[in-house]
Write a structure and sequence with these properties.
Blueprint lengths: L7 H5 L9 H40 L5 H14 L12 E5 L2 E15 L2 E10 L2
Antiparallel strand pairs: 1-2, 2-3
Helix pairs in contact: 2-3
């Protein structure tokens, strides 16, 4: 009598083989690498923006009496903070709303990615 052992295709079931092909692995590696590269290039500009925002909030909270005083305070803080290099005190717009000093700023940052390819980020903010 013959034994009725299942053949190989029956052992695997209907699903077949599962896994990641070499081509799929390379595609994901390139995609993750590109995203990581862009993130590493963008992070310093985001850090600078957050530092500028904190500085503007701090200056507005001290309620400077003149526009020149607010700009001078920003320049002093810029000398302390190593990461602020894109804007200066002259780039701040100083207004007054409901007896509160409001400082606002806006600037563009071009980030070179590869050769003639750049990423343009437009930052803007105002004191709270």
């Amino acid at each position: 009598m013959r034994s009725r052992l299942p053949s190989m295709p029956q052992l695997r079931g209907a699903r077949g083989q599962r896994g990641l092909t070499l081509f799929g692995l390379l595609t994901w590696a390139i995609l993750v690498g590109m995203v990581a590269y862009v993130a590493l290039r963008v992070f310093p500009t985001v850090n600078e923006y957050l530092t500028i925002q904190r500085t503007v909030d701090k200056i507005a909270a001290s309620a400077p009496s003149t526009v020149a005083e607010a700009r001078a305070a920003f320049e002093r803080q810029k000398d302390i903070e190593y990461s602020i290099s894109t804007i200066g005190g002259k780039d701040l717009e100083v207004t007054k709303e409901n007896d509160k000093v409001v400082l606002s700023f806006a600037y563009d940052k071009e980030i070179p990615l590869y050769g003639p390819v750049f990423l343009l980020i437009k930052y803007e903010g105002r004191s709270r």
